[in-house]
Every structure is written in structure tokens, then in C-alpha cells.
Amino acid sequence: MIIALDGMGGDFAPQEPVKGAVEAVKEYGVSIILTGPKEVLEEELKKYEYDPEKIEILDAREVITLNESPVLGIRRKKDSSLRRAMDLVKEGKADAVVSAGSTGAILAGGLLVIGRIKGVDRAALAALMPGKNGPFMVIDLGANAEVKPSNLVEFAKMGTAYFESLKGIKNPKVGLINIGGEEEKGNELTKAAYQLLKAEEGIHFVGNVEPREITDGDVEILVCDGFTGNVVLKMYEGVVKNLMSMIKGAMMSTTRGKIGGALVKPSLKEFMRKNDYKEEGGASLLGVDGIVIKAHGTSDARAFKNAIRQAKNFYDRDYLEKFKGNLK
Amino acid sequence: MIIALDGMGGDFAPQEPVKGAVEAVKEYGVSIILTGPKEVLEEELKKYEYDPEKIEILDAREVITLNESPVLGIRRKKDSSLRRAMDLVKEGKADAVVSAGSTGAILAGGLLVIGRIKGVDRAALAALMPGKNGPFMVIDLGANAEVKPSNLVEFAKMGTAYFESLKGIKNPKVGLINIGGEEEKGNELTKAAYQLLKAEEGIHFVGNVEPREITDGDVEILVCDGFTGNVVLKMYEGVVKNLMSMIKGAMMSTTRGKIGGALVKPSLKEFMRKNDYKEEGGASLLGVDGIVIKAHGTSDARAFKNAIRQAKNFYDRDYLEKFKGNLK
């Protein structure tokens, strides 16, 4: 399997994507094409020992910045590291793209360069997150600020194919993120989507899921518009971050708490490690006719390595074919 | 000050509202009219010593259940405990309503019985929540699943009046909950609302606030549609609940962690107490021409007492006049 890795995407490029590539090659046996300025990437690669047959550089002289329109960036900067990586998949020279570039640019690249799967109206961003009783997936995390009710059915099918092919879970549960448990609750979108989801065969729709229950992890797939999904994702991140810091502060305010804090530290560290998004890899752009993984902007080498593993899983478990089958 | 307290609202009625009323009378010197079946409330009141001049019962034989339409419930069940309480405010016989009944019924009661303030298009639910650096308020928490951009400006004014009158904070910061920091980010609602908020005088608009930063508590007032606000509120509750339980589980998995856990327990308990929604009272229905406090459905006596204190604050600090002034 060949992975096109955007060597210039993310806050810590090119160091971390390059290091992640070297580690992934060793660990997973994949081949990687790194895109970016040749001399910069070569300089980084020199730091490591690796099988030169497994890592190749594709020169790309431009970078799409956060300040420009993602669509124009992808269209005009044909020699950017992200566009080059997308082209590799489009041309069949690579099997997946991994990038920690901006969500907007990756979305634009997926849609404009690789293109949607025939029959799919909207592509969507999805990611697994740690829940109390197991991981769960929210679709869409922000690719579509506005959607039609029927798009949520598409998202449910994408998620179902994901759990069936990648996790080996048959008939994963699908929930609709809503602000009430009853069928008639919610806004116009969720009310209409509820009826469509209920009528849809081939998915295991369990009804509305209130945000209080999302992180229980009892429902595998949670569908919503991209605005709501982004709120869910970022609330989760923000509350965990602040709560951990507030708990630390509370413990440190007494001597007894300080001693106890020192004792529980290893457990908490292990807990945070297990529940770290970096372990899961990145978000997947589902609905496009190729494997596109968006790693977190702050990804380190480990996160890149895990995003590459994730791309490999999509490939090995034949996600695309599974989803195309579910569409019919 | 006279408070109309729905004696039959909430999961633990009539015991907890009655107990909360007795405590509030002692602590805050308010007078309370309890609404509900006379003999039931009298039986409860018998358990306590209290000043009989300060607590009165208004007989009400009906209860609006969770299974009926809130609007029909309020309209038809004229002898329900909630409707009676709302009537008392409408007729000027009480200065505020406190109820732990269903959000829908309280909203319907506020709108249909008490009515909106002249010039206000939408009433909204708001509540203070604990943030890392201070409390923050989200408006709307779920009264309006769909809103117009101009409604968010109204919400900003309600919140500003709240912080100015109740908290004595001049020019509190107003943020728009959005899925990106930049002006042009978001869905159609937030893009249009951003421009209106920016142009509005008399509020201190600081731009978009991403959900990751909401619980920092650096921005006092966060405006959004009721669907989004409800997602924010319930994600916050759910993540805190699950995270605390997951952290506990992680600590209990090793002997060292168990010992440390025992030591940090008092600090964590104190932390949870300080950050308990029950301390703040309830959610306020803003924009109606009266003081309406919705206590949490699971309220105990302490939560009712705090909701009554909150109603008293609205009254003492002249919130309604302040907000009407800001409207002009």
C-alpha cells in the first residue's frame, strides 16, 4: 500500500510528519510518498535510518496557508504539498492521503481533486472518540455547516460501513443527535431526518440521542449536521481539558490533596493516554472516492503514525467497496 | 417579595419544593405561595416549623404531565399547579414564579400566561454555568429550536442586562458560539448574526467563541440558537459526569491509585459541590414580562432554595427594568 503524506501540513511540519512516516514504514510496512519542498524533506529524512525503497519524495513548492480560501488554494496552488498528495490518489499512484493541513483545504481537495463517490450528495468528516463504554463516531464533524435531512441518512450509511468493515461490528447502532428523546423533538432538520432514518433499511437506527448521553459510548454512530458535530467535538475537547486542569487545581489546594494527587498521577496519565485522540489517528473524510485522513493540526510523530495506520485499515478492510455496496 | 412556587413540579415534588420553601423563607425572608393540592401540601408543611404568615397555599387540583402538549396543558389545565403559579404573577399577586416542571410547560406558561415584554420577539432560556475562570451564561438553552439572526441580538441584550443588574458587571463580553474564529465562518445563521452583533451598540461583542473555549469562562455571555445551546449544556453535563466516573475507575484500578483516591476525595467533593448547578439555582426564562425561574427537574430542597434566591435577586436588582431600558 502507498500513502501520500502531506509533508508540510500541521503545526509541526515538516519534522513530525517526516518522523511519523519513518516510524510508520517500520511498523506497518507501508510505502510513503512525502510531498513538499524536496531539499527540506531530504534534510529531515537524513536524521533517520529507513528503507529508501519505502519512502519517496515528491517535490512540491507551494503551501496552502490558513489565511486563504481553501477552494482557491486547492485550485490554484497546483504545486502545493496537499494538492500534490491529492493528485497522487486521483491518478492512482497512491492509495490514501494523510494530511494535518487545514480542514477546509483537505475537504476542498477531497471534493475537487478526488471527487465524491457516485450517488453521494455530501462528503462528511467523521472521527472515533473515546466514550465511557466504548468508542463512538460523530458524523459530520464540520464539513457541512448546513445539510438536508437526507444527508443524515447518507452519513448513517457511511458510519455503518465504517463499523462493519473497520471494526467488524455488524449492525452498529445509529443515533440522531437531538435535544429531546421523543420523535417529535428538535429543529426542522432533526424532525425530518428522524422520519427518514426510521424508514431506512440497512441501518440500525435507535432514535434520538441527547448530548448528555453521547459520551456514554453506547451508540456507535451519531449523525448530525456539521455545525452540531463540530460543537460536540469541541465541547468534548474543551470540557476535558478544563476539567482536568480544574481537578488538578482542586487537589493542589490542600496538603492531603497534594499527596493524593501524586499517588493518582500515574493512573490519570494512563487514563489520559488511553483517551487521547492521537491514539485513534485522525478524522476521515467519508463519501469521497478515495481514502482521506485528516490528522489533528497539532499532530506529533505518533499521531501521524496512527493516522497512517488508520489509512491502512481503511485500505486493508476495503471500506470503500463496503460503503459503495451499502449505498445500493 | 412574594414568590409563586409550583408545589408539584419536579421529580421530587411535593416533598422537596415544600422543604425548599420552608428553608428559603427562613433564610431570605421572602413570602411564598405554594400551588398544588391543598391537603397534600398541608401534609408536607406539617413536618416543619415556619412562619405561617410567610407561606400560603393556593389550591390547584391538576398537574401538567410530561406526556401532553405543553401548550395545550397550560391552556386547558387552568387548575394545574403551574398555571396557577403563572396566573399569580400575571395578576400581580406574586412577583416571580419558580417551578421544576417541564421546560416546555414553563416556556408555554411564560409566553401564554405572562407574555413577552413589548418589543421582544423571542423569549429565551439562560443559565449561568461554572467555567474555569468564572461563570458564563449561555442563551438560548432550548426555548427556540430555530431562530432568526436578529433574535441573537435580543439574547445578547438580555444577557447584558443580566450581568449588569444581577452581577454588577459593566459591559459584560458577548460571544457568538460558532465553529470557527473568523468572521466568515459558520452556518447561515451565525454568519448573519455576526454582522448584526458587530453593528449593535450597547453590547460588548467580542466575536466568535469556539466551543472549545466556552467553558474557559472568559466570555460572560454566549449567544446561540436553542438547539446549539441545548447541545452545549447537555454535552457539558454529560462529559463532566462521564469523565468523573472514568477518572474514578482509572484510579481504582491500582492499589496506589486507590490510596491516592481516598486522599483526594475531599478535594474532589468540594470541587463538585462548588461546580454544582444546584448552587446557581435554575435557568431563567428571559424576555417575558415577569420573573420565571425553571429549576432542574431533579432539584432537591437546596436547589429549590437557590432558585428562590435567584428569583429574589432578579427582583431586588430590578432586572426587568434594566432589560427594558436596554431594549430602547
From TrEMBL, chains A, B:
Under Gene Ontology molecular function, one entry of this record is: phosphate:acyl-[acyl carrier protein] acyltransferase activity
Q: Identify the pathway.
A: Lipid metabolism; phospholipid metabolism
Mind telling me which GO cellular component terms the entry cites? cytoplasm
Which InterPro entries does this entry report, sorted A to Z? Answer: FA_synthesis (IPR003664), Phospholipid_synth_PlsX-like (IPR012281)
Its annotated compartments are: Cytoplasm
- BP term (GO), one: phospholipid biosynthetic process
What is catalysed by this protein? a fatty acyl-[ACP] + phosphate = an acyl phosphate + holo-[ACP]
Name the enzyme group at the top EC level. transferase
Q: Does the keyword Transport apply?
A: no
Enzyme Commission number(s) of this protein: 2.3.1.274
Q: Does the keyword ATP-binding apply?
A: no
Q: Which UniProt keywords apply?
A: Acyltransferase, Cytoplasm, Lipid biosynthesis, Lipid metabolism, Phospholipid biosynthesis, Phospholipid metabolism, Transferase
This protein's source sits in the domain of life called Bacteria
List the Pfam families: FA_synthesis
Secretion signal: which residues? none
Q: What does the record give as the function of this protein?
A: Catalyzes the reversible formation of acyl-phosphate (acyl-PO(4)) from acyl-[acyl-carrier-protein] (acyl-ACP). This enzyme utilizes acyl-ACP as fatty acyl donor, but not acyl-CoA.
Family classification: Belongs to the PlsX family.
Subunit notes for this chain?
Answer: Homodimer. Probably interacts with PlsY.
Q: What is this protein called?
A: Phosphate acyltransferase
Supply the source organism for this entry.
Proteiniclasticum ruminis
Gene name, per UniProt, is plsX
